[in-house]
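User: I'm writing a tutorial on reading structure tokens. Could you give me a worked example: one chain, its sequence, then its tokens, then a sentence or two explaining what the tokens reveal?
Assistant: Sure. Here is the example chain.
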Amino acid sequence: MMFDWSQQRLLVIAPHPDDEVLGCGGLLHKAKSAGAEVYVQFLTVGDTADVSDKGFSTASERVAEIKEVADHYRWDDWHIAFPGDDYHLRLDTLPRFEVANIIERQSPISVTSVRPTAVLAPHRLSYNQDHQVAAEAVHTALRPSDARRRHHPCLVLSYEEAADQWRQEPAPAPNMLVELDEAAIEAKIAAMRLYGSQFHDHPHTRSELTLQSLAVLRGMQGGVAFAEGYHATRMLA
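And here are its predicted structure tokens:
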């Protein structure tokens, strides 16, 4: 099935800065290059203790990285819902209603405001508690109802990250593959490098070789050079 990304408005839900690149950075390049609108809703960002030589990254450093990545991709807009340390890596302390309401209507780039044709979010089986909260909140925010009264994106996808393979139950295979060209892979890796506080050498789940390898694996499964894997929750044709 060929999909016309040029006519789409993408809303990406990213628990933290870099999740949108790790999960769908190739598609963001592909869609934006085709003429799509792209919006990224970050849920939280705060000071982070990293397993790295530096050992620590501040919220202000990570916001500066977002700005560079946003320019790199030419996003139409982005927003942070819960900035600061109160909820960073603690989204599970928030009522789901509050997180879902941000996504559905309260954010300046909410589903109600942007009226996206496609929403992309983390997979609910991620080991990370913030990713789990994001996935469940999106599931609630996009619940079925009368499309004449509430906006219904036609495409709802869960993106995958290499680190998500660390889970207690078998990882389901993606049921949707998005073909990428070499330029999209290069753009994804370049964006990840702009997240300097989060980019690591191999072996690491956020290394260049990991991103390349996963794209090659998913591409092979679709008979193409590169791809990203997704789980489609809704696909209305």
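What the tokens reveal: Residues 19-34 form the longest helix (16 residues). DSSP finds seven helices and nine strands in the chain.
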